[in-house]
Specification:
The complex is a heterotrimer of chains A (224), B (273) and C (397). Chain A is an alpha/beta fold. Chain A has seven helices and ten strands. Chain A has helices at residues 47-54, 77-87, 103-114, 118-131, 147-158, 177-192, 204-209, and strands at residues 3-16, 19-32, 36-40, 62-67, 70-71, 88-91, 165-169, 197-200, 212-217, 220-223. In chain B, 55% of the residues lie in helices and 10% in strands. Chain C has helices at 2-10, 14-49, 75-84, 144-150, 199-206, 227-237, 246-256, 258-289, 291-300, 304-341, 358-385, 388-396, and strands spanning 56-60, 88-102, 108-116, 124-129, 139-143, 157-162, 173-185, 194-198, 216-221, 241-245. The chains are: A alpha/beta (224), B alpha/beta (273), C alpha+beta (397). Chains in contact: A-C, B-C.
Chain lengths: 224, 273, 397
């Protein structure tokens, strides 16, 4: 099994007023291809901070992250951005879809940035929306979708460029139990289809579905 | 009086061998010709005409005349008989100035005199001033037109900014409405805010205007070498401008506030169904 | 796709964007008007001066044509000398004088008279009837305002008076002249009642002091040499008079209009500042509102450069859209402002302050486009530099 993600001794400090707050205190994590890893822990344990470092959205104070063998430290912003575009799919708690675009257009977005042609990305977007069960909602504006539907669109968007890894931050955090259950099922399907998943969650059901559970507290991994 | 063409000694004028006449030069002319009191020069009606030697008896500062400021004319004063002789028009003048006795109405005096003085036109000075100030009326109208355009642009600009500023507060407004604060109270708070901004802005604007006015006067006085005032910031002007800007600021704030409070709190929060 | 987002995002709040477009439009209109004003009247004046093909003017030394009552002497020799010059195609003298005439109703009408050499005159164009001819000692042409005031038409005989004594109302000279035609005087102010007679008749009416004198001479330069060069050479040959090319006259004219040039510069600059503030503020607030979306785009892998270009493009849309509106508004307001300014007393009726030439229009468009770009730079930079994780975290809380 190839290691998709290798994080070593990650430390992250933030300035807060005149002090420095340490969110991560030397976290190391390895995610292999096909893993379904859940990161759990109380609020303030550093879960989301760890996710942003793993996804190259922020840089660690010290430590290193390697994605598909490429070290993210020292990469110029352009290269790091390209890495995210090609290799990582993000799913956020609040979906973060663009309200002025339709469901299909939101899914097309990463493909357009990659340079895919209009017809090709349209066909793929329709395919992905069908995969997540939204075949009949492709031309709907985001504001016309329910919370669960919006999260499905977000998942379809995350899959757009066939990423090596999906990083999800509290994907069911804004959803009711039933809708959350639908997203759980989708993640299960993604994993079954071979997608590597790292999910930060408070949702016990989601944690139970994962093959690995990494428990964090006070910026450290306490159990794995 | 016909305008004299001042001929310099460089030109071939025919000099009349007579006692030099006394002349007074305006300061700018004296500076231009580098002449001082006691210096001599030649004056003639035409460049190629008969000239008289003149001696500078005085250098004076003419009263600033806005009608001639752009023309940069030079002025010279002569005794009336000398001017008449030079022009070849003895005992003739262009106009005579009359000062009426205190308490006498100039218009009434003009009418009476016209009945007895055949061939003359008697015009009160105020009427002459009014007729000759057409240029300034034109400039005044032009300035007013520019002011209208500027006010229009400012009003649109203000409305746009107020809308942006107040709409940026919609979440705050949603929270206030959720907690039971009435539309009226919220609107009043927003309008009060707009009033404060408009008031401070008006005062700042008035200060800026005073500064700009001083700069304009300094610049054009230097440029045209004059003591004329080009920009006058009167109390009336300030009050008018401050009043208008206050009105515009509060009105645009009120419009923006009304747009915000008429929406439901859920809509403001972005969760409306 | 991200360009679709940028375009639709701009019109997400239609009212706000339309207001901004209107604001930019009004500023653009003011900018355009000031560009037109800054050189408009000079261009108009230059066109007028060259309208009949006379590139040089000869006037009393130190004065501009018809600026004073001074006159040039030895005109016959001067005209002959100029006409004999190989670089001069033609030259004609003009004498300005005050004349009076009796109207059909018997009232005395004061007129502006021009004594001309009809074979080489450049101050009027014939509208109806025929022109006066060289040596025509009985003919006169009237401007329309004069014809109206006199109640006269082509073929009528009128009594003209010169050297009128205002005290006794007695003329020093009088003569009956036949109206040969009606003309349009190119340099006259609106409604100015003017007449043109032959130079000899004009001198006769003006009196012995004006024998062989003229107010101004108009000179047409032959094809080939530059008029300014010819003017300089002729000035050396005739130092007792002032010889100006049209360029010289325009420079003098420009000096007298310094106020308007500077005013147009100041107002134009203010318009630009307002545009920068308006577009910059709108984009800054829009970017600030959209930071979570921008952070999302960056998280998905959209490059900084793309974000930067999109915000700049939004600024460009506002300025270009507003600019097009401003073009229409500007041309309308220019007409209005021109109507106000051309009411200056004594200004030739054919001169305009606001001239819609390609150069000022292009300059206004370019200046506005650059201004829009400048206004968008800071918000675009802010958008591109938004910290992704921090923004997303703030959005989640």
């Amino acid at each position: 099994m190839t290691d998709v993600l290798v994080a070593r001794d990650l430390v992250k400090e933030f300035p807060l007023n005149e002090r420095r707050v340490t969110a991560l205190r030397g976290v190391s994590l390895t995610v292999a291809e096909g893993d379904y890893c859940a990161i759990v822990g109380p609020s303030g344990s550093g879960k989301s901070t760890l996710l942003t470092l793993l996804g190259g959205l922020d840089l660690p104070t010290s430590g290193s992250v390697e994605l598909m063998g490429t070290a993210t430290a020292g990469l110029a912003d352009r290269a790091l951005t390209r890495l995210r575009l090609e290799r990582i799919g993000f799913v956020f708690q609040r979906f973060h879809l663009l309200p002025v675009l339709t469901a299909r257009e939101n899914v097309e977005l990463p493909m357009a940035e990659l340079g895919l042609g209009r017809q090709e990305r349209r066909a793929r977007a329709d395919e992905l929306l069908d995969y997540v069960g939204l075949a009949g909602r492709t031309t709907h504006r985001v504001t016309q979708l329910s919370g669960g539907e919006m999260q499905r669109v977000a998942i379809a968007r995350a899959l757009a460029n066939e990423p090596a890894l999906i990083l999800a931050d509290e994907p069911t955090g804004e959803l009711d139990a039933t809708t959350g259950g639908e997203i759980l099922a989708l993640f299960r399907r993604l994993h079954a289809d071979g997608t590597t998943l790292v999910v930060v969650t408070h949702d016990d059901r989601l944690a139970a579905e994962a093959g690995r559970v990494v428990r964090m507290q006070d910026g450290r991994i306490v159990t794995e | 009086m016909h305008r004299l063409l001042l001929a310099l000694l460089l030109f071939p004028v025919t000099l009349l061998a007579q006692e030099p006449i006394g002349v007074a030069l305006e300061r700018r002319l004296a500076e231009q010709l580098r002449l001082d009191v006691g210096d001599s020069l030649t004056v003639a009606r035409e460049v190629d005409g008969v000239g008289r030697t003149a001696r500078v008896e005085a250098i004076y500062e003419p009263r600033a005349d806005p009608a001639t400021i752009m023309r940069q004319d030079y002025r010279i004063r002569l005794h009336l008989p000398d001017a008449a002789e030079l022009l070849g028009t003895p005992d003739r003048v262009d106009r005579i100035g009359l000062a009426v006795m205190p308490g006498v109405d100039p218009r009434v005096a003009a009418e009476q005199l016209e009945r007895t003085a055949f061939g003359y036109d008697l015009i009160p000075t105020a009427e002459v001033a009014a007729e000759s100030s057409t240029t300034f009326l034109v400039v005044s109208r032009f300035h007013r037109a520019i002011a209208i355009i500027s006010i229009l642009a400012s009003a649109i600009f203000l409305l746009c900014l107020m809308l942006l500023k107040i709409e940026a507060r919609k979440l705050d407004v949603a929270m206030l409405r959720f907690t039971g604060i009435s539309r009226r109270t919220v609107a009043a708070a927003l309008i009060l805010e707009a009033t404060v901004i408009a008031s401070v802005g008006s005062v700042v604007g008035a200060v800026l205007a005073a500064g700009a006015s001083a700069v304009v006067n300094w610049h054009y006085r230097r440029l045209f070498d004059t003591t004329l005032l080009f920009s006058l910031l009167s109390v009336e002007t300030v009050l008018w401008a401050v009043g208008l800007s206050l009105l515009l600021g509060i009105a645009t704030g009120a419009i923006a506030a009304w747009r915000l409070v008429r929406q439901s709190p859920l809509a403001l929060w972005g969760r409306a169904g | 796709m991200t360009w679709s987002w940028a375009w639709r995002d701009l019109f997400r709040h239609r009212g706000r964007t339309l207001l901004a477009l209107l604001g930019v439009g009004v500023s653009a209109a003011l900018l355009l008007d000031m560009m037109m004003l800054s050189g408009g009247i000079e261009r108009s004046f230059e066109r007028l001066l060259l309208s009949r093909g006379y590139q040089l003017r000869v006037s009393p030394s130190g004065t501009l044509p018809f600026d004073t009552e001074a006159t040039v002497g030895d005109v016959t020799a001067l005209v002959s000398g100029l006409r004999a010059d190989p670089e001069v195609e033609d030259a004609g003298a003009i004498l300005g004088l005050a004349v009076q005439a009796k109207s059909a109703a018997g009232t005395a009408v004061s007129l502006v008279g021009y004594g001309v050499q009809p074979e080489a005159q450049g101050i009027y164009v014939l509208e109806s009837g025929r022109d006066i001819t060289p040596g025509d000692s009985n003919g006169v042409v009237l401007g329309l305002p004069a014809a109206t005031q006199l109640g006269a038409s082509v073929g009528d005989t009128l009594r003209f008076f010169g050297r009128l004594d205002p005290q006794t109302a007695a003329p020093g000279a009088e003569r009956s002249l036949v109206v040969r035609g009606v003309v349009r005087f190119l340099y006259d102010a609106r409604d100015q009642p003017s007449v043109a007679l032959t130079l000899d008749v004009a001198r006769w009416l003006a009196g012995p002091a004006f024998r062989d004198r003229a107010s101004v001479l108009m000179v047409r330069v032959a094809e080939g040499p530059a008029p300014a060069t010819v003017a300089a050479r002729l000035q050396r040959e005739w130092p007792a008079v002032g010889i100006s090319s049209v360029d010289d006259l325009v420079v003098q004219f420009r000096l007298r209009l310094t106020y308007f040039r500077q005013l147009s510069l100041i107002l134009g600059a203010i318009a630009l500042v307002v545009t920068v503030l308006l577009v910059g503020t709108l984009l800054t607030i829009t970017v600030h509102e959209r930071l979570p979306e921008i952070a999302t785009l960056r998280a998905l892998g959209v490059a900084r450069r793309t974000i930067l270009l999109q915000v700049l493009a939004q600024g460009a849309v506002l300025t270009v859209g507003g600019g097009m509106l401003g073009l229409v508004l500007g041309l309308i307001t220019a007409r209005w402002l021109d109507t106000i300014l051309t009411a200056f007393p004594g200004l030739p009726a054919s001169v305009s302050f606001f001239v819609a030439a390609p150069r000022p229009l292009a300059l206004a468009a370019l200046t506005l486009a650059l201004t829009g770009l400048l206004a968008g730079l800071w918000p675009a930079w802010q958008a591109a530099r938004a910290p992704i994780a921090h923004t997303l975290r703030q959005e989640a809380t």
